[in-house]
Amino acid sequence: MILSEAGTALAIPFDNILLTDFSLNTEEPTSQQQSPEDKLKQDFLRNRGEIPCHIAVIMDGNGRWAKSRGSVRIAGHKAGVDSVKDIVEACGQLGVRHLTLYAFSTENWGRPKGEISALMKLLVQSLRSETRKLHENEIKLTSIGEIDRLPPTCRRELEEAISLTADNKRMELCLALSYSGRWDIRQAVSRISQKVKEGTLCPDEITNETITDHLATAHIPDPDLIVRTSGEFRLSNFLLWQSAYSELYVTKTYWPDFRRNELYQAVESYQNRERRFGKVSSHFELEESPFAIR
Ligand code: FPP
């Protein structure tokens, strides 16, 4: 992931970018109807152990995926949307309650204008084409980050989708947009300081919960599992406070090739971990998967 200085990119024209110019075939098509084999895999995982309540994903490797096919970075982002669709669908079916996707970081504003425009356009197109399906499947869309920095069309589509799906209960899909963990902690500290200044909060009363409650994720439990694609062992400024006890799963697979079978591997790996939260071990044993979830 390219990390550079944060920039400003409010007035970005993107209507002149034709995303159809950047189509490449991905490894597997996104599923239209759930296959009996896929249903069996999901049933197995549910019976095998705990399904993480909150999965957060650092979607990385779109650029390298495109480069490895001799194409431009935008082709990688476009192909990455198919992975987003497959993972959202699979998480909803599996019983994951919260899925957070790191779709655009604060640092991503430092990318070339053309790439930022293409990413914003992809977001708008995806919201336009997928919101109805999210709603039909009882998925609630939310976002975290400096949404005010997004181009107006993007913000409008996002706000409409958030409002339409607000009462859905099956799963929450949270898009981290113009988000960074340090921004989140900074804005929480700023709001807490304001309360101290106004005399409504005493400094001695500030606890971990106070900070948690002022983060953009106040309404979401901390991630149980953080998945990062493309093989980098970094958090890249994602959910810094919230990841204190998250289990990490890193795969070399580039995001456009990351589909539900690898998600199942990540969940299986999560189920194999013993989460002690700093305490002592308790004995636990799990069944081996009969599926070659590879
Ligand atoms: C990281 O790959 C990926 C991103 C910064 C953007 C992710 C966006 C999408 C998958 C598409 C739009 C999303 C939604 C939710 C509709 P990279 O560009 O850093 O790849 P590299 O590390 O190989 O250069």
Strand content: 5-15%
Order of helices and strands: HEHHEHEHEHHEEH
The protein's oligomeric status is single chain
Residue share in helix: 25-40%
Structural class: alpha/beta
The CATH homologous superfamily name of the domain at 45-179 and 223-232 and 240-271 equals: Decaprenyl diphosphate synthase-like
Radius of gyration: 20 Å
| CATH top level label of the domain at 45-179 and 223-232 and 240-271 | Alpha Beta
Number of strands: 6
Intertermini distance: 25 Å
What's the CATH topology label of the domain at 45-179 and 223-232 and 240-271?
Undecaprenyl pyrophosphate synthetase
Average per-residue pLDDT, rounded, comes to: 89
**General shape:** globular
Low-confidence stretches: 1-22, 25-30
In which order are the strands of the major sheet placed?
Answer: 3-4-2-1-5-6
Total helical segments: 8
List the helices and strands and how they pair.
Blueprint: H1 36-48, E1 54-58, H2 62-68, H3 73-94, E2 98-105, H4 113-136, E3 139-144, H5 152-164, E4 171-179, H6 181-198, H7 208-214, E5 225-228, E6 247-250, H8 260-272
Parallel strand pairs: 1-2, 1-5, 2-4, 3-4, 5-6
